Amino acid sequence: MVVATQSLIFTEKIEAIELPIIDLSADRSKVSKLIVKACEKYGFFKVINHGVPHDTISKLEQESLSFFSKPFPQKQRSGPANPFGYGCKTIGFNGDVGEVEYILLHTNPHSIAQCSKTLSCNPIKFSSAVIGYIEAIRRLACEILELMADGLWVSETSVFSRLIRDVDNDSIFRLNHYPPFCTQNRDASPRNITKIGFGEHTDPQILTLLRSNDVCGLQISLEPGVWVPVPPDPTAFWINVGDVLQVMTNERFKSVKHRAITNSLESRMSMAYFAAPPLGAKITALPETVTPERPPLYRAFTWAEYKKTVYALRLGDNRSNLYRLP
Ligand SMILES: C=C1C[C@]23C[C@@]1(O)CC[C@H]2[C@@]12CC[C@H](O)[C@@](C)(C(=O)O1)[C@H]2[C@@H]3C(=O)O
Ligand SMILES: O=C(O)CCC(=O)C(=O)O
Ligand SMILES: [Fe+2]
């Protein structure tokens, strides 16, 4: 099957700005204030000294590399990603495409063990690398969400983190691989052509924790048509606010628009943990974020209801607006 690829639009502006870097080993009350500031201004920040062991990350990176290095027909046998498994170029179910191949997994250990059977010839090794990483990244996500709650002066510190600690949480995990997009021109010198790897979108969940290898490609957009490159740092995590957190904070926090481009002659790999509540969880603005000057902006909905809307729409569509109060 021939799938059309999207090229970049040349009228777009690229703007280099310094994005917030938060040292999680610093004083807790200072850190929580800095996180709130970053979420209000960008919906995006980097964390360092995060406590996720290097070994946990490199075990998973190794598994990811050996999976994506396999011949295409072999990888195809682990797909399609409907809803979980291997996918290539097709994103979601509504016609989105990109220069990316990926593995999508639910974070429930039973589901990981099942999927690993088709993803690796050593499923125990594969699933323990994924489960180990998810345990560590969930701990980090909870820590960040608790710092956010403190910074917002919410009385219950675990108001966000309990949603993703719940046994029925609907968090998912994604390994992305952006192969180098290199063509030869007429004098046979390599040309660096940039294509869309993963098109513009916001993440629907509460929070995303993303780690990539040392190859650039991720960009965020703070105003229409202007893209800010995110420098790669394999030792850190980039954190982005998702739609649910935007709604729960009554839009004090912004769900950040982002995309990934295939940038170079190098292969890019990323791992993204999407922290989500249980399907039945009711999503509504926290009372602390509602004031007479700032009445509730969204009607209440369940995560199941929102997820259904997400999957009925295209990648770049705005879904939270559909829940906005008049
Ligand atoms: C086109 C789509 C892919 C997506 C589901 C959707 O219908 C719209 C949101 C997409 C997204 C973006 C963030 C995550 O990568 C993702 C797993 C998610 O939860 O929402 C993807 C979905 C996907 O690839 O299935
Ligand atoms: O690979 C990346 O850097 C971004 C991927 C992404 O945005 C996603 O998987 O939702
Ligand atoms: Fe994303």
TrEMBL record:
Keywords: Dioxygenase, Iron, Metal-binding, Oxidoreductase. It comes from the Eukaryota. Residues 168-277 form the Fe2OG dioxygenase domain. It holds the Pfam family DIOX_N. Pathway: Hormone biosynthesis; Plant hormone biosynthesis; gibberellin biosynthesis. InterPro entries: DIOX_N, IPNS-like_FE2OG_OXY, IPNS-like_sf, Iron_ascorbate_oxido_reductase, Oxoglu/Fe-dep_dioxygenase_dom. One of its GO terms (biological process) is gibberellin metabolic process. It is an enzyme of class 1 (oxidoreductase). The keyword Metal-binding applies. Its EC number is 1.14.11.13. One of its GO terms (molecular function) is gibberellin 2-beta-dioxygenase activity. It catalyses: gibberellin A1 + 2-oxoglutarate + O2 = gibberellin A8 + succinate + CO2. Belongs to the iron/ascorbate-dependent oxidoreductase family. GA2OX subfamily. This is gibberellin 2beta-dioxygenase. It comes from Rhamnella rubrinervis. The lineage of its organism: Eukaryota, Viridiplantae, Streptophyta, Embryophyta, Tracheophyta.
